[in-house]
Structures are given as C-alpha cells and as structure tokens.
Design brief:
Helix content of chain A: 55-70%
Oligomer: heterodimer
Shape of chain B: elongated
Number of strands of chain B: 12
Strand content of chain B: 25-35%
Strand order of the largest sheet of chain A: 2-3-4
Structural class of chain A: mainly alpha
Order of helices and strands of chain A: EHHHHHHEEEHEEHHHHHHHHH
Largest interface: A-B, 60 and 57 residues
Number of strands of chain A: 6
Number of helices of chain B: 4
Largest sheet of chain B: 6 strands, antiparallel
Structural class of chain B: alpha+beta
Distance between the termini of chain B: 78 Å
Order of helices and strands of chain B: HEHHHEEEEEEEEEEE
Strand order of the largest sheet of chain B: 3-2-12-11-8-9
C-alpha cells in the first residue's frame, strides 16, 4: 500500500511482519550454546567423580559439535525457513542425555551389578553416541528426502498396516525378545529394536490422513445428550477398534506405555480434528475402564500398579517396588538445587537407571530447578510442534504436526509421571535422554518431520500473480 | 576437587541451563512479535530535507496520537454504512484503520460488482482524524455526492460515496 498521491499520510506508519525471516543464524547461535552446555556438564561430572577433566572431552565435544553442525547445514540448505528452536533443543537434550549416561557408566555400583549379572560391564555412553549419530543421519535423510510432507498422505492405509505389523512384530516367535516381562523388542542380528517407537510416527500418518477425510462426519453427525455431543454409533467404529488394538498390545506385550500412547494420540487427534469435547470424555472413560480390567488380569501390569500405589509397602519383597521407591527417594534427596552432577546416588535404582529411570538422576543431581528446566525444554519442543500445526496451511500437515507433538507430550507425561510416582510406571523412555537406540533414532526422525512441516508452513507465500480482475472491469458507457 | 568449586559448578550449570531456556523463549517472543515499523513515504521524502527533518523531529508518541486522535473528536463519524447495493446494511466500525474497497479478495469491503475495479478506492483518516476518500485509479471512478473524485477528498458526514452500484456513507 503506497501513498504516492496523499500528503496527509506522511506521519502514519505501517506495522508489518519482517519479510520472510529464515532464522537460521538464530538457530546456529542456539546450537553453539546447546553444544557448550553438555560439554560443561561433562567437565562437571569428570571433576566430581574422578577429580580430573575427563580425557574424552575433546572427542566427545567435537562429536556432538560435528553432529549438530551437520544437522544445521542440512537444515540451512534444504529447509531454510524451518523452526529455529527444534534442532537446538533436541541437540541439547541429546547431549545432556549422553552426559547423564556417561555419568552412570562411572558408577561403581552399576559396574559391579553388571559384572555380577552378566559377567562383564560395557559402558553405554559410546553406544549412545553411535545411536545419536544414526539418529542425526535419519534426521538428515528425512529433511533431504521428504520434500513435502503431503506426500505421506498418499500412504494413509499402507501406514496403518505397517504400524500394526510393527506393533505385532515382537509377538512373532523367534523374532520377539522378552525382556523383563515386556515383549516390545525384536532382535535382529544382535541388535534389539523397539518397533513401537517407529510405529508412533507411522501411525500418526494414518490418523491424520484418516481424520482429514472423516472429520466432518465425525464432527457434525451427532446427537446432543446431557450437554455433550454424542457421535453416531457407526462413527464410534474407529475409536473402538483402536481401543481394542491398544488393549491387545497391553495384554499380549505387557506394555502399558505403548498402548496408552497410541490410544491417547488418537483421542488427541480426534479432538483436534472435530472440536468435540465428547471424544475426550469417551476416551478417558474407555481408557480408565480398560486399565482397570487389564490391571486385574495381566500380572506384569498388576505388579506395576501395586508398586505405584504403595512402593514402600512392598519395598523389601518386590524389585519393581524397590525401583520406584529408590526413584522417589532420588527426587526427594535432590531437593531444590540438587546434589550436583556426579554426586548423587541415583545409581541405587540399579536396573534401567540409565534408561527408564534416567529422569531420577536429573532429579537427584540437578534438583527441582534442573527437572523444571528439562521439562521446559521438552515443553518447548511440544510448543514449537503445536505452533507448526497452527501455521501449517494444509489440514493433513496440521493434524500430522499435532499428532506428533501430542505423542511426544504424552510420552514425556507418561515417563516423568511414572518415575515420580504420579502414575504407574510404563516402561517407556524419555525421548533423547534415555539410553536406547530405537528411541533416540525415532525421535530424531520425529523432529525432522516437524522441521519439514514447519519449513513448509513458515515459507513465505510466492508473490501473487497479477490480478486479472482489473482487466475484466466493465466500463460504464454514458 | 574442593567443595567450593563443585558448588559453584553445580549452581553455574543450573544457571546456564536456565539461561538457555530463557534465550529460547526470547526467540519465540521475537517470532510472535517479529514486526517492524516502516515510516510511510519516507523514501519519497528523502528528496525533501525539510519535511524529512520535521518528521524525524516529531516524537513517536506524538505521531501515535496524531494518527489515532481523530476518533476522540466530537462529531467524528464512528461507522461506515453501505446504504445501497448488494452489501446494503453492512457496517464497518471506523477505528483509525484504512478501509479499502474493491473486487480484490483482500479488500476490507469486497465489492461483488462488475463495475468496480479490483482496487477501487480507499478511505482513511488523515492526521487530524478527518476521514478522506481516495480513488485508486479505478476504471469507472468514485463519486462523492454527484462529483467524480480526482484528488483525495474529506468526507462530510452522511455524504453518499458511490462506487459502481454500491453507495456508502459515514455516520456517527
């Protein structure tokens, strides 16, 4: 809007958005920060545990820095308008996760425990660094190869089948591995993979493709009953199917976390797609009902519920109760400011101290202040995901970004709630933080997809073609 | 390692962690309010040093008041009413913003009228709060009362402005 003919507008100003900021330099600055913080933590742990600066400092710092640099350059080249926060926050969490795993590797208690159980102790931190590299590689592949997230829309039903197959794989005899009661791993050639972590992303494709087509029917065809819009019976089909599938996962794989994640994600996406509160009410009722029924039948789940209700009642008798009890004591002894990195006793948790229970180490060594900072970092990733969904212009992208960030949020809630004793422990892992290849690789892919959607959403629209309306204006002939 | 060093490192680490969170939130803030203020006509006025100097000398608050001050004036119009045409009965509150009229989809009032141009006219307050109508080079012209507009013209209260088949007027 120019004011070429009007002298009276000289003193008015226009307030407009800054023309197409790419924010890549902001991202670079934050990335440098996100690499320096874990290096600081690494030095801190080394000084506290061994009284010296750790010898691997240079290699570790360079490794993390290199991974971050590769990620940044690929984003700069292939997704220049992507969100500036996702990559640095994910890098920071991954780096701090590596430090925490390395810190627990230094614990003599855990070393002795591993030697007495398996005969030898192998540190987890180098493996985790390798997995992080693989995760960044997958992130790079997603950003480079997925030019447009809407391509995924074509594979709506294929991805449903793929996700169900992935979820059922651990039940295949010979392929599935039963680790501590939960059958959520498969082992191929010495590597154990948790297919559920990948299924999380793939099923989000199905949900968003399906809901995009069906959301009008689900939203509009309903009856009003007691202030709630109840859906028609046949529209309940998909949610009932999903409920049944997640209950089957729960019963046959003994995995509370995955089933909660899938059902919760579907309910979140249904709600977002239809704006009907009734779906949330129905979803909560169904999951509560399912949980009660299953917890009375499935032994593994029952043990966990008992451990949740009264961890110190069965502390002496049950391993699950002892773990939860130790975890709660870790959080308690951390206080507000924590004991300092490398100076806590969270290794008393023993089994899974560096995977499922890694958040207890944060709680003990960094205290409430550290826990809050970590939760805020996760919240930032989720916020950027939802922000991406708001900015996305296509309904598929909106639902996809919502689903991915919803799943991420649910996972954080389920894991953090589990180790703090808010809800029964589920055996999921803290994204980016916990030791475990599948989790870190799948979550890097998730961040890659969110970056791709945000690049599409934040990319400035192409300049509009010259308006043909002007030529079509009819001339009044007097 | 001495107790003191470790305590300093412990608190320092927490401080750095929180600093990252705060910086990240700052980035979000600048994303939300990433706006810049452009002075209209400043490019054109660069050839006229006196005018440019006067504009720079005026403090920003004063400019703010000047642009928004019109609506507090007594007897100033508060709404724009479409009194004839397809959009008859439509009203737009006048709050110091520029109102564009035309067939273009981004106009404030989109005229579905073959005799209107895509960017036909605009109505805006000048710095004294007086509302001005300006023809934007339309094909069939904009009429205030019976006369065709050639320059931006102040709009008297209740005077009909005709654009194609549409007539609008300003009311209190």
């Amino acid at each position: 809007m120019s004011s070429t003919t009007n002298p009276s507008t000289h003193h008015t100003s226009t307030i407009g958005a800054i023309g197409a900021p790419s924010r890549r330099n902001t991202e670079l600055a934050l990335l440098v920060f996100a690499v320096v913080i874990p290096v600081f933590a690494y030095v801190n742990v080394g000084l506290a545990v061994n009284d010296q600066v750790p010898s691997g400092l240079l290699g570790y710092g360079l490794g993390l820095g290199l991974l971050a640099a590769v990620g940044h350059l690929v984003v700069r080249k292939f997704a220049p308008y992507a969100d500036p926060l996702l990559l640095p926050v994910a890098t920071l969490l991954n780096g701090l996760g590596l430090v925490l795993i390395w810190r627990l590797d230094q614990s003599p208690r855990l070393q002795q425990r591993a030697e007495s159980l398996f005969g030898s102790f192998s540190p987890d931190a180098p493996k985790q660094l390798l997995y992080s590299a693989l995760g960044i590689a997958l992130f790079v592949a997603v950003v480079m190869l997925l030019k447009d997230h809407r391509i995924l829309q074509r594979y709506t039903y294929i991805s449903m089948v793929a996700a169900i197959v992935l979820l059922l794989l651990p039940l295949v005899p010979g392929l599935g591995a039963n680790v501590n009661g939960a059958k959520i791993w498969i082992s191929i050639g010495g590597f154990s993979i948790q297919p559920g972590e990948f299924a999380k992303i793939i099923i989000a494709v199905f949900f968003s493709g399906y809901l995009m087509v069906k959301r009008d029917a689900l939203a509009l065809a309903s009856r009003r009953f007691m202030g709630l819009y109840l859906p028609r019976g046949r529209d309940l089909g998909p949610i009932l199917t999903l409920w049944a599938v997640s209950l089957l996962i729960l019963i046959f794989e003994n995995d509370l976390g995955t089933s909660l994640l899938f059902f919760g994600m579907f309910v979140i996406m249904l709600y977002v797609a239809t704006e009907r509160t009734s779906w949330i009410v129905i979803g909560l009722l169904m999951s509560a009902g399912g949980a009660v029924v299953v917890s009375t039948f499935a032994s593994q789940v029952k043990v966990r519920v008992t451990a949740w209700l009264d961890p110190f009642g069965c502390y002496e008798t049950s391993g699950a109760c002892e773990q939860i009890g130790q975890s709660i004591m870790s959080f308690g002894s951390g206080g507000v400011l924590g004991t300092g990195l490398g100076q806590g006793n969270s290794d008393l948790i023993g089994f899974a101290a560096n995977s499922d229970f890694i958040f207890a180490t944060v709680g003990e060594e960094l205290g409430l202040a550290g826990v809050m900072a970590f939760l805020l970092l996760y919240a930032l990733i989720i916020e950027r995901g939802i922000r991406t969904a708001l900015a996305a212009r296509d309904p598929f992208g909106k639902l996809f970004a919502t689903g991915l960030s919803g799943a991420f949020a649910l996972q954080i809630f389920v894991v953090a709630g589990g180790v703090m004793g808010l809800i029964p422990l589920t055996g999921m892992t803290m994204p980016f933080l916990a030791s475990g290849g599948s989790s870190v690789i799948a979550n890097w892919a998730l961040v890659g997809i969110l970056l791709r959607i945000s690049d599409t959403a934040r990319r400035p629209a192409p300049a509009p073609a010259s308006n043909p309306d002007a030529e079509m204006t009819q001339v009044v002939r007097p | 390692m001495s107790e003191l060093t470790l305590t300093v490192m412990r608190l320092g680490f927490l401080a750095v962690l929180w600093l990252f969170v705060i910086v990240a939130v700052q980035v979000i803030r600048s994303d939300l309010f990433g706006t810049r203020v452009t002075q209209r006509g400043s490019r054109r006025e660069s050839g006229r040093p006196q005018a440019a100097a006067r504009q720079q000398a005026a403090p920003p608050q004063q400019r703010q008041q000047a642009s928004g001050g019109g609506r507090q004036r007594r007897g100033a119009p508060t709404k724009l009413v479409v009194s004839e045409g397809i959009l008859e009965g439509t009203t737009v509150a006048l709050q110091g913003q520029t109102i564009t009229l035309g067939r273009a989809h981004d106009s404030t009032i989109v005229l579905d009228d073959d005799y209107a141009s895509s960017r036909h006219a605009r109505i805006y307050p000048d710095r004294d709060g007086q509302w001005i109508v300006e023809d934007l080079g339309s094909t069939n012209g904009t009429y205030l009362d019976r006369s065709r507009l050639t320059t931006p013209t102040p709009i008297p209260l209740g005077a009909p402005i005709r654009i194609g088949k549409t007539v609008i007027e300003l009311r209190k």
